[in-house]
């Protein structure tokens, strides 16, 4: 399709990532906290979704994780603001990965549901976003976590609560097929 003149300069962004299949066995053989500490230390690569959305791991503790995200215009919707799905993905990642930090070796997780409240629009002028996920309750089969995203000025952008399914990973370290894999 040929776009008519006057619609701005064409832009692009190159996204590179490591094959996540190669890190599955390592992730399954570590506690969630040890896994995220290895990512923070550069011993394991970040996940492809982190590279796609320009998320960076900033801090990790048991039951708490922090990511930053540098939004760019490639995340814009037709109205000229960052798509809510990008913010939701950031919230989902922070909440779910916070839960992961509490899990022992051989245990996985996936989102059951997420409830998001969008409080303000995000643009490239919002600056670096910070997402903090914290565990509310880490159960043996169901866990509850929450997350907040703030902009560079510290203003709250969005919040989320999440319910997560906790399950034993199969012995071959491949998680079951689901619609919400967050690692």
Offer a few descriptive terms.
183 residues, alpha+beta, 6-stranded antiparallel beta sheet, 4 helices, 21% helix, globular
Description:
Belongs to the thioesterase PaaI family. There is one protein chain. The protein has 183 residues and is of the alpha+beta class. The chain has four helices and six strands. It has helices spanning 21-28, 32-40, 48-52, 84-100, and strands spanning 55-61, 64-69, 107-118, 129-138, 142-150, 156-168. A six-stranded antiparallel beta sheet has the order 1-2-4-5-6-3. The radius of gyration is 17 Å and the shape is globular. The termini are far apart.
Give the SSE layout.
Blueprint: H1 21-28, H2 32-40, H3 48-52, E1 55-61, E2 64-69, H4 84-100, E3 107-118, E4 129-138, E5 142-150, E6 156-168
Antiparallel strand pairs: 1-2, 2-4, 3-6, 4-5, 5-6
Shape: globular
Biggest β-sheet description: 6 strands, antiparallel
The number of distinct β-strands equals 6
- Overall helicity: 10-25%
- Estimate the strand proportion: 25-35%
Task: Tell me the strand order in the biggest sheet.
Answer: 1-2-4-5-6-3
Family: Belongs to the thioesterase PaaI family.
InterPro entries: ACOT13, HotDog_dom_sf, PAAI_dom, Thioestr_dom
Pfam families: 4HBT
Keywords: Hydrolase
């Amino acid at each position: 399709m040929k776009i008519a003149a006057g619609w701005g300069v064409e832009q692009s962004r190159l996204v590179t990532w490591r094959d996540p299949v190669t890190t599955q066995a390592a992730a399954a053989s570590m506690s969630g906290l040890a896994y995220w500490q290895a990512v923070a230390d550069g011993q394991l690569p970040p996940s492809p979704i982190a590279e796609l959305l320009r998320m960076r791991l900033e801090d990790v503790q048991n039951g708490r994780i922090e990511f930053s995200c540098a939004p760019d215009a490639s995340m814009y919707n037709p109205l000229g603001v960052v798509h809510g799905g990008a913010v939701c993905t950031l919230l989902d990642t922070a909440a779910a990965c916070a839960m992961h930090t509490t899990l022992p070796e051989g245990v996985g997780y996936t989102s059951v549901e997420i409830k998001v409240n969008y409080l303000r629009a995000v643009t490239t002028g919002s600056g670096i976003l910070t997402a903090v996920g914290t565990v509310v309750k880490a159960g043996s089969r169901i866990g509850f976590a929450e997350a907040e995203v703030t902009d560079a000025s510290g203003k709250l952008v969005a919040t989320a609560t999440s319910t997560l399914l906790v399950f034993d990973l199969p012995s071959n370290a491949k998680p079951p097929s689901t619609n919400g894999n967050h690692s």
